Amino acid sequence: MGIKLDSQEESQIYRESIHQAGKVLVLRFIKPWLNSDFVFRILGYEKLLNKILQPIHSFTRKIIRQRNIKFMDNRDQQDCEIYDRREKHAMLDTLLLAEKNNQIDLEGIREEVDTFTFEGHDTTASAINMILFSLAENPDIQEKVYEEIMEIIQRKNGNSLEIFDYTNMTYTDRVIKESLRLYPPVPYISRELTEDQLINGYPAPTGTLVEAHIFDLHRDPQYFPDPERFDPDRFLPEQVEKRHPFAYLPFSAGPRNCIGQKFALLEIKTVIESILINFHLSPITQREDLVFVADLVLRTADPIKIKFTRRS
């Protein structure tokens, strides 16, 4: 977004508010009577949710306001088109430029910023958490990832890795995909039907809310034999070609797929590389101890514990 936060406290309040909002939304999801706007309102949940959303929207509006001041200080409206073509700039600048050209309003910008700030922090953290757990649980696979990383680092003669280097981590990429299969950060998604459908012989009219349970979809033995086994080779090109393209949906699919998936994967690889070149991971929490709880993002009831041993 091109903005540096004034204090850590701001982001802490934002994260806590996001978690509280998630609890209310999940509660509405699992209790059918709360789907009624009238019932949701008279039982006080609507007022509670609006109160929780206030600091969330204030946070994003502040980011937009601060960046807009810098944007207008640096560029007048006549320079916008030149600025857009010739220079690299923050994503928020692109939105502000669109607003100046009457392509989006300020509320639309807030919704886009909300999408990136909310979707981009908790989901990636959940993914990294479970990938580290998977690596700790599978030491042979962890060692292969480490060897691939070190091979690339040695080719660079100690220089910093660049984006191109991360795209060449083919085995690491398969490991990440397998972890996202078993532990998708977003375990389910909702879609509203825009036309009538027939699902398993049952009519589903336009406007029906459909829930796709990604967590269960990724464990379909028809597409993933022995689904609970961690096997990165499921994502070898020849294996992927055999599967239905929608059998694997960690970032959803189609026109409403995750807008930040490429950035998220680069972020994940950066963190994994930084950790593995310094530490060997060993499991403390066992897989049979994992208990997942209902939330907007995949979470465990108890913290996952991993032992970090510094590499010699």
TrEMBL record:
Belongs to the cytochrome P450 family. It holds the Pfam family p450. This is Uncharacterized protein. SUPFAM superfamilies: Cytochrome P450. May be involved in the metabolism of insect hormones and in the breakdown of synthetic insecticides. Its cofactor is heme. Keywords: Heme, Iron, Metal-binding, Monooxygenase, Oxidoreductase. It comes from Phlebotomus papatasi. Heme binds at C258. GO terms for molecular function: heme binding; iron ion binding; monooxygenase activity; oxidoreductase activity, acting on paired donors, with incorporation or reduction of molecular oxygen.
